[in-house]
Design brief:
17 helices, three-stranded antiparallel β-sheet, alpha+beta, Cytochrome p450, five-stranded mixed β-sheet
Length: 397
């Protein structure tokens, strides 16, 4: 008797997947149902969860699906391009149980010290300065000239990080998200955040890093560095891409654009539409079951990553089957014990930045056909390589 070969795994790291992930998710659902065998990198297996209800059950079951990857990573070489994105770190994102509670308490308290009014004013100031640098040109790449500088400058201010350290952190983080030169990116990132911790221990300020240092949990230098890795990881790439994906939606959806410009719809509604349809962190919320787990008749292997596809789950046809409501909370901020603690700050930054852009450049248009836009390959993010726009340049004085 011969054993049937395992089903072929779908490569999430290839350019073909990045070019049209929604078609890929539809094909996955037709072939596999809610649990899909995938490769996150060549030869690196995982299960991608594309069913909404199944994802919610997993994200709220830390006993069977902890976020601690230490058993898994023992079998993964350091050269694996996605290992730096997934490996264990002493922070809330990659811990479970009491360790997770300790780290999350420190992060939540540090974020709670952010003054929302001051943050709004900061984003407005940074957005105005950023637009002024390209306004006279009549064209710009909003990714490199608007969204990325805003995320960088705002986050660096919130964390009390000097620009020279912040640039190295941003460089390291981009390499990790892309899975290209990820090991060197991890080294750059680790050295830079360690330098920031040393600086703020010596020179405290009114910032998130200083509040983390002062928290009663008494985080050590290594723990501190890895809290900052999480904050930068959530605050640079995903925030940049949330801004860009939302601006793209407004520029390319004529009905939506008209309602936004006529105040019939708000930028907040545009953000929520993108968070449902094309969230910047498309596949993440990774867990590592220490024992085999059976869900809906499917066995998920022990110590193999289980990755939640926020994009596919948000668009699960089962949510509206039979005339049911489609307005359930999306999973783009995750849910359960690892739900994003900086949701309100991310909303405020993105909404303020986009509103300022639309007010400053009301006649802005996409400078190329939408089909010419390209998406960065990678199993985790939904990220454009560029977003070129054109607009009337101000008349010379």
């Amino acid at each position: 008797m011969t054993t049937a070969p395992p089903p072929p795994r779908i490569a999430l790291y290839e350019a073909e997947f990045a070019a049209d992930p929604h078609a890929a998710y539809a094909a996955m659902r037709a072939q596999y149902g809610p649990f899909v065998p995938v490769d996150l990198a060549p030869g690196l297996p995982a299960t991608l969860v594309i069913g909404y209800e199944q994802a919610r059950r997993i994200l709220n079951d830390e006993d069977h699906f902890p976020a601690d990857p230490r058993n898994w990573e023992q079998t993964v070489p350091h050269t694996c391009p996605v290992r730096p994105m997934m490996e264990w770190r002493p922070n809330a994102l990659r811990s479970a149980g009491p360790a997770h509670s300790r780290y999350r308490a420190a992060n939540t308290a540090a974020l709670g010290g952010v003054d929302q009014h001051q943050l709004h004013a900061l984003v407005q100031h940074v957005a105005a300065d950023t637009i002024a640098e390209f306004r006279t040109a009549g064209r710009a790449d909003l990714l490199s000239q608007f969204a990325s500088p805003i995320a960088f400058r705002v986050l660096s201010t919130l964390l009390g990080c000097p620009d020279d350290i912040g640039r190295r952190i941003a460089d390291g983080m981009a390499k990790i998200f892309d899975g290209v030169h990820a090991a060197s990116g991890n080294q750059i990132l680790s050295a830079a955040v360690a330098e920031l911790v040393t600086l703020r221990r010596r020179q405290p300020g009114d910032d998130i890093t200083t509040r983390l240092i002062a928290h009663p949990t008494r985080l050590g230098d290594t723990e501190m560095a890895h809290q900052l890795v999480t904050l930068y990881g959530a605050g640079l790439e995903p925030l940049t891409n949330l801004i860009i994906n939302t601006v793209l939606k407004i520029l390319t959806d004529e009905d939506f654009s008209a309602t936004v410009h006529s105040a019939g719809a708000s930028v907040r509604e545009a953000l929520d539409t993108v968070l449902y349809r094309d969230p910047p962190l498309a596949n993440f919320c990774i867990t590592y079951p220490p024992h085999p787990v059976i869900i809906d008749g499917i066995q998920l292997p022990a110590n193999e990553p289980v990755v939640i596809s926020m994009t596919a789950c948000n668009n699960d046809p089962a949510l509206t089957a039979g005339g049911g409501s489609g307005d359930r909370a999306h999973l783009s901020w995750s849910t359960g014990p690892h739900a994003c603690p900086a949701r309100s700050e991310a909303y405020l930054i993105a909404e303020t930045a986009i509103t300022h852009l639309l007010d400053a450049l009301p006649e802005m248009d996409l400078a190329c056909p939408p089909a010419d836009l390209t998406w960065r390959p990678g199993p985790f993010h939904r990220a454009l390589t560029h977003l070129p726009v054109r607009f009337p340049a101000p008349a010379a004085a």
